[in-house]
Design goal:
The chain has 106 residues and is of the alpha+beta class. It is built from three helices and six strands, in the order βααββαβββ.
Amino acid sequence: MSCNPAVGGIAKGHLVREVDALGGVMGEVADAVGIQFRLLNTSRGPAVWSPRAQMDKKLYRARMREVLEQEPNIRIKQAEVAALKIDAGRATGVTLRDAARSIRAP
């Protein structure tokens, strides 16, 4: 989540709906941990009305991590990437800043 703990608005709200339509969970997690929900631009026409929710940043991070950890075939690693491994013009893995570890694509 960015430094602004809001999900929604005219631009970001459209993006969230697109992500959800493709099977993403950003909107679902936002609904679960939202602390304030508003409809923006209500003094204008319905074409520019836009929902926005303010999140609890710590809860959002924790809930999103829970959701991601339950997904099959996803491994969560937290480290700084130092370089990409490229084979035949295709990214096949990464080298982490901690040179003792690297990750290869399955």
